[in-house]
């Protein structure tokens, strides 16, 4: 009986390995097909005679993208199944097992390359769409040399209300200011403002002018600085870093009424960049619902956003991302239909359109209070 059981088990094992080999053969054929398609796409898109292929969306191109996405999904499922089978049979390593282990690693590397390629192709398609939210406000204050006067790896951007003079002073003298003054961190900090609300004291702008002259850390655009315009302020930060600070590595966005452990957030960004090129960190909300009460500060009408559920998004109080992600988000914000809730719009809607994953980490948990 023991011998019969061994024979039966061995036959089951051999059948499983033969099945795995057949599946891998199919994957290899698909990889070859993908390579041919990818080469064709790259040749066409890089040809000066076919620039319209990139600039004008085409239905056949979309179908190729979708086919490649199907391939990625199927391959990931197959790899998971094969790895599970290998875990069950590790005690009986055969030539087939070695074959599978080696080529699963190769397939994983190929899939990663494919995903990067597809992300870039999707971004190029987004760039071909017309701009519908042109951010063409002029600067009242614009310290354009902030990131070029000395090597800069980290830029801390702080959206701030025009009247929050005390908050900004406290931040300059606090942990964020200390971090930027430490030369080894290679960090800078800027505050982003709009113009004072219509009807307010004209002395507010005069105080901002004096503050900008004294510290050189104020970026001010001429949109009205009211709560409903927070989306414009978010876009102004993305535009500024993409235009005037493209040499920086990472952006830390933090409100002017929270405390931040900048070193902890930067460490998270450096670690994550070893695996991902584009990403965002923050405090993530999932299955949140829009507030339909018109008396609420966060009211979102069904006309502006019909869905009963908001997409996963990051709260705006504290976020971190690479400079390449900032550029993608800015380009998306110019082309994607807006909603006024800026954290939902930028991190929930625009990030998804440019395939930027939103992640969470304890270093990015925060509470609003005096800075």
UniProtKB/TrEMBL annotation:
Keyword Transmembrane: yes
Membrane protein topology class: Single-pass type II membrane protein
Transmembrane stretches, start-end: 24-44
Superkingdom, taxonomy of origin: Eukaryota
EC number(s) given by UniProt: 2.4.1.-
Cellular location(s): Golgi apparatus membrane
InterPro entries noted in UniProt: Glyco_trans_31
One GO biological process term: protein O-linked glycosylation
Entry keywords, A to Z: Glycoprotein, Glycosyltransferase, Golgi apparatus, Membrane, Signal-anchor, Transferase, Transmembrane, Transmembrane helix
Transmembrane is among the record's keywords: yes
Coiled coil: none
Gene Ontology cellular component terms for the protein in this record: Golgi membrane
GO terms assigned for molecular function: hexosyltransferase activity
Family: Belongs to the glycosyltransferase 31 family.
Stated name of the protein: Hexosyltransferase
Organism: Arion vulgaris
Protein encoded by which gene: ORF144689
């Amino acid at each position: 009986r023991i011998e019969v059981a061994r024979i039966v088990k061995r036959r089951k094992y051999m059948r499983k390995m033969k099945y795995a080999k057949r599946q891998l053969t199919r994957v290899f054929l698909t990889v070859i097909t993908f390579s041919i398609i990818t080469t064709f796409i790259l040749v066409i898109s890089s040809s000066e005679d076919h620039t319209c292929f990139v600039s004008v969306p085409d239905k056949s191109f979309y179908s190729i993208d979708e086919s490649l996405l199907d391939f990625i999904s199927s391959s990931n499922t197959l790899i998971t199944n094969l790895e599970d089978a290998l875990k069950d049979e590790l005690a009986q390593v055969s030539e087939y097992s070695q074959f599978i282990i080696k080529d699963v690693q190769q397939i994983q590397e190929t899939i990663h390359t494919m995903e990067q390629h597809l992300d870039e192709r999707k971004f190029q398609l987004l760039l071909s769409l017309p701009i519908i939210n042109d951010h063409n406000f002029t600067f009242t204050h614009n310290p354009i040399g902030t990131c070029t006067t000395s090597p800069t790896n980290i830029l801390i951007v702080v959206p701030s209300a025009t009247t929050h003079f005390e908050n900004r002073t406290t931040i300059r003298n606090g942990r964020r200011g200390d971090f930027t003054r430490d030369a080894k961190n290679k960090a800078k900090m800027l505050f982003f403002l709009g113009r004072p609300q219509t009807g307010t004291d004209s002395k507010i702008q005069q105080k901002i002018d004096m503050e900008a002259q004294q510290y050189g850390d104020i970026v001010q655009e001429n949109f009205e600085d009211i709560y409903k315009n927070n989306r414009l302020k978010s876009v102004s930060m993305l535009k500024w870093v993409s235009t005037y600070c493209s040499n920086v590595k990472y952006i830390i966005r933090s409100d002017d009424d929270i405390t931040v452990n900048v070193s902890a957030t930067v460490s998270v960004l450096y670690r994550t960049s070893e695996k991902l090129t584009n990403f965002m960190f923050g405090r993530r909300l999932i299955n949140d619902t829009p507030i339909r009460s018109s008396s609420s500060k966060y009211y979102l009408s069904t006309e502006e956003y019909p869905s009963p559920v908001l997409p996963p998004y990051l709260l705006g109080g504290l976020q971190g991302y690479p400079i390449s992600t900032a550029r993608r988000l800015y380009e998306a914000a110019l082309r994607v239909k807006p909603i006024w809730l800026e954290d939902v719009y930028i991190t929930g809607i625009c990030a998804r359109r440019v395939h930027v994953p939103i992640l969470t980490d304890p270093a990015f948990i925060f509470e609003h209070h005096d800075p």
